[in-house]
UniProtKB/TrEMBL annotation:
Pfam family, one: NifU_N
Molecular function in Gene Ontology: 2 iron, 2 sulfur cluster binding; iron ion binding
Chief localisation class: mitochondrion
Recorded family membership: Belongs to the NifU family.
Protein name per UniProt: Iron-sulfur cluster assembly protein
Transmembrane stretches, start-end: none
Described function: Scaffold protein for the de novo synthesis of iron-sulfur (Fe-S) clusters within mitochondria, which is required for maturation of both mitochondrial and cytoplasmic [2Fe-2S] and [4Fe-4S] proteins.
InterPro entries cross-referenced by the UniProt entry: ISCU (IPR011339), NIF_FeS_clus_asmbl_NifU_N (IPR002871)
One Gene Ontology cellular component: mitochondrial matrix
Keywords: 2Fe-2S, Iron, Iron-sulfur, Metal-binding, Mitochondrion, Transit peptide
Residue ranges annotated for the NIF system FeS cluster assembly NifU N-terminal domain, each copy included: 7-131
Cofactor(s) recorded in Swiss-Prot or TrEMBL: [2Fe-2S] cluster
Length: 135
């Protein structure tokens, strides 16, 4: 019994071939940036969304995660999920769904929480930018 085998292959896949790694220009008016940390371990995740102002849908998404494999897999999975979603839909994604999809063990639940916090924080940043722009 190896430790690796206790991880679901989807985690390994997202960890080895993370989707949408990178950054969007933070100062673009249609980009929202979420930067969050996990108090449990100090890992950090940055997740950015670009929103089409007419449709209100997320048209691009990038992340950078300085953390464990489960955090990287959770953020990679999150970026795939939210592309094309409205902000409301994206804001409703719960970490428990991610954990279930990736079969994360209980000690790795907080890693998926990082992805939920990051998307919420990106949405909040986008909305506050928009409200400043419309003043
Ligand atoms: Fe070390 Fe998360 S605690 S990578
Ligand atoms: Fe802390 Fe995964 S984010 S161990």
């Amino acid at each position: 019994f190896s430790l690796i085998r206790s991880y679901h292959e989807k985690v390994i896949d997202h960890y080895e071939r993370p989707r949408n790694v990178g950054a969007l220009p933070k100062t673009d008016p249609d980009v929202g940036t979420g930067l969050v940390g996990a108090p449990a371990c100090g890992d950090v995740m940055k997740l950015q969304i670009r929103v089409d102002e007419h449709s209100g849908k997320i048209v691009d998404v990038k992340f950078k995660t300085f953390g464990c494999g489960s955090a990287i897999a959770s953020s990679s999975y999150m970026t795939e999920r939210v592309r094309g979603m409205s902000l409301e839909e994206a804001g409703r994604i719960r970490n428990t769904e991610i954990a279930k999809e990736l079969c994360l063990p209980p000690v790795k639940l907080h890693c998926s929480m990082l992805a939920e916090d990051a998307i919420k924080s990106a949405i909040k940043d986008y909305k506050s930018k928009r409200s400043i722009a419309s003043l």
